[in-house]
Specification:
Blueprint lengths: L32 E9 L4 E11 L6 E7 L16 H7 L8 E8 L1 E7 L5 E10 L4 E11 L7 E3 L3 E5 L4 E2 L2 E2 L2 E2 L16 E10 L3 E4 L2 E7 L2 E11 L3 E5 L3 E7 L2 E7 L5 H19 L6 E6 L6 E4 L2 E4 L6 H12 L8 E2 L5 H18 L7 H22 L17 H23 L1 H15 L3 E2 L1 H7 L3 H11 L6
Parallel strand pairs: 1-13, 19-20, 20-22, 23-24
Antiparallel strand pairs: 1-2, 2-7, 3-6, 3-10, 4-7, 5-6, 8-9, 9-17, 11-12, 13-16, 14-17, 15-16, 18-19, 21-22
Helix pairs in contact: 2-3, 3-4, 4-6, 5-6, 6-7, 6-9, 7-8
The chain binds zinc ion.
Length: 481
């Protein structure tokens, strides 16, 4: 283990004088590839893992270092950016204060590494040779994750062990360097390019496992080992639970499964998952992954999306079940297949996922939600928020293109990213009519699948200056609602 250099904060470094030097590695791949072999030990709440990651340089620039997000460090004692807002803290930390974190003990194939970033959130790896464009480098890492006792994306929860965002995650490539973000308790700070994953995870045999991707489970002497594979995914996630049960359906030729532990009406969530997968496939374009998994897990609010897997909270009631499942399923299109910068422009996937849920519920009235009621709720919620903000706080800034860490809290984030997003897409649909509206969304999906799209990419897909002006008037905070 060497820690030899000052963190470069992931800047791409141009190495013009090294023309003709062959960068490390020979293989050129179109996406990063992660091989992770880990074992979870419940007694100590620790996951130990070896990871091999192959990173192709698709930036067009020579790289001297790579940056990885260490999302697990947000759960450590003393973290500056807490993973959970004060509103949900008590519900999440069910057994009082608890901490976790990640420790990277070695990085093979590199000149050195350092944990840095504003909140120990970045693993900066100094390459042993400059990495030229179109060349790849393979690194080996050993790391150990300690889980906090917390009902959240990564934690030993009251019922399940939830393993998401647990491994060092290559930062997405931006125009001016790697995109490095701190954790944010409002929204989802995760921004990743698509990658391929091969994961083996060993755990005590009394656990059942829900996981993204295709896989199989073998048993050896009191333990199970899951081997799972996912391609073209933003991430990989697992839920382990002693009481997890599974029911299955199919939609569009894809396997749909629902894991649950306390849901007394599991058929509703499964049906909503299958119905929404069918609806969005028809409305926007084909679902890419071979199966889709929804899992009820320990989560203090709503749900959470990962590639080919959605988590939903255990306390959902009535029509909220279908609304949340549809919202998370829509994220397969607007997050997983079409990515966006969720940290800088969270409305783009959240507003679209929430509006897609409204579209689904409009098409499937049996779930008991009226489309116009859905829109009115968003309008009323947003107007109340704006009234409070402008009259009491004297602040009329409703700009939607703002980073997660700039929101004052859950209330502002909810109203600007979700409710105002829903109103935005409802108004666009009113202006374009259904035919052009859905054609625009289909185009946005086709042209941006596998990419990280921007608001301007969305605007361009409607091929209308009026729509562009309308969307910008919302995002710039200039329109009156
Ligand atoms: Zn969402």
């Amino acid at each position: 283990m060497k820690k030899i250099f000052v963190c470069a904060f992931g800047a791409f470094l141009m190495v013009g004088s090294l023309a003709g030097f062959s960068g490390c590695g020979e293989k050129t791949a179109s996406r990063p590839h992660y091989s992770i072999a880990g074992e979870y030990f419940p007694d100590t709440r620790k996951l130990t893992a070896e990871m091999q990651v192959t990173v192709p340089n698709l930036t067009g620039k020579t790289l001297e270092s790579l940056s990885f997000e260490l999302w697990a460090n947000a759960y450590r004692e003393g973290a500056k950016y807490a993973p959970i807002s004060p509103l949900y803290r008590d519900a999440a930390y069910y057994d009082g204060e608890s901490f976790g974190g990640i420790s990277v003990s070695s990085v093979e194939g590199a000149a050195g590494f350092q944990v840095c970033g504003e909140d120990e959130n970045i693993l900066s790896v100094s390459l042993s040779e400059p990495l030229d464009p179109e060349k790849s480098v393979t690194l080996g890492m050993n790391f150990e994750v300690t889980l906090a006792k917390v009902n959240h994306r990564l934690g030993a929860g009251e019922h399940n062990v939830t393993l998401a965002n647990f491994y060092p995650t290559l930062c997405a490539a931006g125009e001016n360097g790697f995109l490095e973000y701190v954790y944010a308790s409002n929204g989802d700070p995760f921004v990743s390019d698509c990658a391929d994953f091969d994961v083996t995870l060993t755990f005590p045999s009394e656990y059942e496992a829900a996981y993204s991707g295709e896989g199989s489970i073998s048993r050896v002497s009191g333990k199970k080992t899951l081997s799972a594979k996912t391609e073209r995914a933003r991430d990989v996630a697992f839920v382990l639970g002693k009481g997890l049960k599974k029911i299955e359906a199919s939609a569009e030729g894809k396997q749909v499964e629902y894991f649950y532990f306390g849901d007394d009406d599991p058929e509703t969530a499964l049906k909503a998952a299958a119905d929404s997968l069918s609806y969005f496939s028809d409305a926007f374009g084909d679902y890419l992954y071979p199966k889709y998994t929804v899992v009820e897990t320990d989560f203090p609010y709503g749900g959470m999306e990962y590639s080919a897997l959605s988590m939903i909270a255990p306390d959902l009631k009535g029509s909220d079940v279908a609304a949340v499942v549809a919202h998370e399923t829509a994220h397969q299109w607007w997050y997983s297949m079409v990515g966006n910068n969720q940290f800088e422009t969270p409305w783009l996937d959240e507003g679209l996922a929430e509006y897609s849920s409204a579209l689904f519920l409009e098409e499937y009235p049996e779930y008991g939600v009226n489309y116009r009621d859905f829109i009115h709720r968003s309008e009323n919620g947003y107007r109340t928020y704006f009234s409070v903000k402008s009259q009491l706080a004297g602040d009329k800034d409703t700009n939607m293109n703002r980073p997660l860490t700039s929101y004052s809290g859950e209330y502002e984030y909810r109203n600007l990213a979700y409710d105002k997003g829903v109103i935005l897409f409802d108004r666009v649909r009113s202006v374009t009519g259904d035919k052009k509206f859905f054609a625009g969304l289909r185009r946005y999906f086709e042209e941006n699948s596998g990419r990280i799209a921007s608001p301007e990419d969305l605007i361009s897909c409607f091929k209308s200056g009026n729509v562009g002006e309308l969307i910008r008037s919302f995002t710039d905070g200039k329109c009156v609602i």
